[in-house]
Amino acid sequence: MNDSDRRPLRVAVIGAGVRGTSLARKAADSDSPVQIIAVAEPDETRKLAFVSEFCIEKDNIYSGWEDLCENLQACDAVIIATLDNQHSGPAIAALDRGWHILIEKPLADTLHDCRLIAAKQKEKGKIVAVCHTLRFMEGYRRLRELAGNGNIGEIVHIEHMEAIGNLRYTHNYVRGRWAKESNNTFLLLHKCSHDIDYLNWLIPGRCTKVSSFGSLQYFTNANAPSESMIRCSDGCGIAGSCQYSAVRLYVDSDLTAWPARDICSVPTRDAHLAAIKNGPFGKCVWHADNDVVDHQTVMMEFESGATVTCTLTGYSATNGRRIRIQGTRGEILFDEAAGTITSMKFEASSEIVEKLPSSQAYHPEDKDIVNEWISSILHSTSVTVDASEALRTHAVVFAAEISRKENRTVLLDELTEDI
């Protein structure tokens, strides 16, 4: 397609949840003409809402990606925003149809499938853009600029913290849809694949060695208070003092605000009470069916000798990432929650604090991700993170999980001989 071709880029969406719908909106409002022409979504409520918003014709409405990829005609590109363990099937099928792809991170939930997608992209010569959002966020781009301008010398060590607020952790990863690895994927890949991608983007050269430790330590049956019940609504003896009480969080709260709005679309007390009595969000956090880790640390060594620690934890009073970059001539501190970057040079007696602009928009960086993807399709240019680049940094994540489970240091050469 070239500049003289006035036909809109025809885009289908696989997975019409919050992320898929948001990316579709960004595409429809992009700098180039784009038409959202089809959707595949198994949830009827989400599907109908998407169809209504984007005026999808009835012949282009599908419940599953298989039917869409087999039967949809006159399509140029597809957005894939399914659960993490449902990426590889539609990605391979879409590339076989000759469609370009914008895919949510992670690229796939196994290294094998990441390899397949990267190989298929190369075979078909299509654009595959992976939504590694940190590379596009203003604060993180500024941090990389400061770290790379020579003011703090050569990077020696990076300390990175992915802090998940304790209530957000229990909502999403103890009671929520990502609580069990078999239903989605392991937590490091789901929550930290873009963190590890970003850290590998900060340091020149490749990561050579990885170690990792972590476990599900606290939110288990063994730690359940003696007065607790399987469900918070069953007469729990500590309901009045428990910060994780489902009744307090999801019923006796603002039903239109997070987290209560997540569990029920009907903002009435009776509806929310029924939801916690019958659904996963009513289970005691010590009696849930969760199995993903609640804390994990990854240690990386690079060709240059630089080292990195990346810590993921569900035991934080605040949400947001914190990064300390230490160089031979100074250090930089980044606090996402505070919205500040603090630079300190060893020879200077003062520090420079930059206040980052705040945004209330949902993932404002998506606009840049989507515009770059569409521009790459129209003008045959490259994207920031394609399937091959995602494979390179995802390999570090898979190496970390091998290390955690096998209790050993993993050399990246074990996984990346052909990457």
Order of neighbouring strands in the sheet with most strands: 14-13-12-11-7-10-9-8-15
Q: Which class do the helix and strand fractions yield?
A: alpha/beta
H and E order: EHEHEHEHEHEHEHHEHHHEEEEEEHHE
Rounded Rg: 23 Å
Count of alpha and pi helical runs:
13
| Ends apart, CA distance between termini | 30 Å
For the largest beta-sheet, the strand count, sense and barrel status come to:
9 strands, mixed
Helical coverage, percent range: 25-40%
Residue stretches low in confidence (pLDDT < 50, at least 5 long) are none
Shape annotation: globular
Give the mean pLDDT.
Answer: 94
Please tally the β strands and state the result.
15
Strand portion, in percent? 15-25%
Question: Could you characterize the architecture of this molecule?
Answer:
- With 419 residues, the protein is α/β, with parallel strands linked by helices.
- The protein has 13 helices and 15 strands.
- It has a 9-stranded mixed β-sheet with strand order 14-13-12-11-7-10-9-8-15.
- Strand 9 and strand 10 form a beta hairpin.
- The longest helix has 20 residues.
